[in-house]
């Protein structure tokens, strides 16, 4: 029996439209977290993960984004906006 230890928390999982990322997103949702399924250009795959989470009573959304730019943005101070 799973104890919902992440209730009220939000998890952002990058690469969540495929394989390990999808499995992590589903496990986090099963533990009570609201999950952001972050993907890059794979909306159909991300939608499948979101649908699986929601069909099991979880909360999830899909967000398309290129995470490779985040390091550059952080180093230039853009992350403070």
How much is the radius of gyration in Å?
14 Å
Helices, by number, come to 3
Instruction: Please mark out the parts with pLDDT under 50 across 5 or more consecutive residues, or reply none.
Output: 73-81
Question: Termini distance?
Answer: 42 Å
Mean pLDDT across all amino acids: 85
Can you count the beta strands? 3
Q: What would you call the structural class?
A: alpha/beta
Helix content: 25-40%
As laid out across the biggest beta sheet, the strand order is 1-2-3
**Count of domain modules:** 1
Major sheet characteristics: 3 strands, parallel
Beta content comes to 15-25%
User: What form results from the Cα inertia axes?
Assistant: globular
What is the H-and-E element order? EHEHEH
Structure description:
With 81 residues, this protein is α/β, with parallel strands linked by helices. It has one domain. The protein has three helices and three strands. It has helices at 19-30, 43-55, 70-75, and strands spanning 10-14, 34-39, 59-64. It has a three-stranded parallel beta sheet with strand order 1-2-3, with helices on one face. The longest helix has 13 residues, at 43-55. It is globular.
């Amino acid at each position: 029996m799973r104890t919902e230890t992440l209730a009220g928390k939000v998890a952002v999982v990058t690469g969540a439209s495929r394989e390990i990322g999808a499995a992590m997103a589903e496990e986090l949702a099963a533990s009570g977290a609201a999950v952001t399924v972050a993907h890059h250009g794979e909306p159909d795959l991300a939608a499948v993960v979101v649908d699986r989470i929601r069909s099991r009573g979880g909360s999830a959304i899909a967000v398309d984004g290129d995470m490779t730019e985040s390091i550059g943005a952080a180093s230039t101070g853009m992350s403070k906006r």
